[in-house]
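On clarity, I found the account of how folds are encoded harder to follow than it need be. An entry of this sort, consisting of the sequence and the corresponding backbone structure tokens, reads as follows:
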Amino acid sequence: MADAAAQPAPPALPVTFRPTRTRAVLLGAGLAIFVTITAIALLLDLHPGERISFVCTAVLLSSVLVLLSRPKVVADEAGVTVVNLTRTRRLAWAQIVRVNLRPGDPWVFLDLSDGTSLPVLGIQPGVAKARAIGDARALRALAEARGSGAKEH
């Protein structure tokens, strides 16, 4: 009975988990970098080619920060979509064996039925540790209720 009270109820689907504070900081910094470097390029007495190189540098730096802000996890009735920096992977609930967030981990890891582990950068305890722990617990509850970790008795 006490064990059932300790288990959180799975959230309503669909649900998206993402590090919102980190995302806001990265996107804000990307915008600030772009505006600052572009303004400097326009204010300095530069040749057109030099100005273009300044703006291209601003775009490149801002693009890296946008890429870093991309991670998220979307859970729906059919499974989970994990969006990391450059890859998106769709998993059926049955493929997820366990959801792990151990002390010191930089993000959640999913143990998969094929024996591999998938990092989930969309749940990171770095800036908002309590929220990340809550998100990991919610994803774990969903995986246990719907996936191969579900009790089949």
